[in-house]
Amino acid sequence: MGLLHFIDVKNIGSSELMQTSVVIAELGGDEQKLARECEVYYSLITRFREVHWIFLVPRVCFARAVEWLMRPETTLLSTCESIEAVADAIFLGSQKVDRISHSLLAAGREGSNDEENPPLLTASEKQVLRLLGKGWGINQIAQLLKKSNKTISAQKHSAMRRLSLKTNAEMYGWINSFQGLKELNLLSMHRESQQWNNLAIN
């Protein structure tokens, strides 16, 4: 199964699409850019009907994505989707997964006209969350970074406030979401873990 991942529609080439079966594309940008992207993707979808198109859709793009990109060949996922949901969409195919994920539908119901400006984490906050995502504890992180436990805890709680996360469970849920893994540069580690798990099973 060939798989392509694009952040910018300008990167997509016809020769590549002829050799792949799954495309993951991220939508975003201002209204004008989004409209252009959707038009181009719509044209490509109608030309390459054998490809399963998976779109990662921010909440503010929900209405436009549904209007332009809802087709039998497509799956619409939220940018906050868990990595497992993205993997299911890839491996199960367009005929066996929901065409619009439940989390994206929920976001759409909240109002697609709201501004989606996710709070930016500082470099220190990202570093702490990244290490927590790798299974490190507060004490270990403090020793590694040569900081006090109090400082590490403060950075962790500051990150949680920025992300509107109230509990550790919510924090780890965000870390393991597609957005969190991408934001913290943990996607490659997650893929490696999956590969090792697959080898162990086989």
UniProtKB/TrEMBL annotation:
Q: Which SUPFAM superfamilies match?
A: C-terminal effector domain of the bipartite response regulators
Q: Name one Pfam family in it.
A: GerE
GO terms, biological process? regulation of DNA-templated transcription
Name the UniProt key words of this record, in alphabetical order. Answer: DNA-binding
An example of a GO molecular function for this protein is: DNA binding
InterPro entries reported for this sequence: Sig_transdc_resp-reg_C-effctor, Tscrpt_reg_LuxR_C, WH-like_DNA-bd_sf
Q: What is this protein called?
A: DNA-binding response regulator
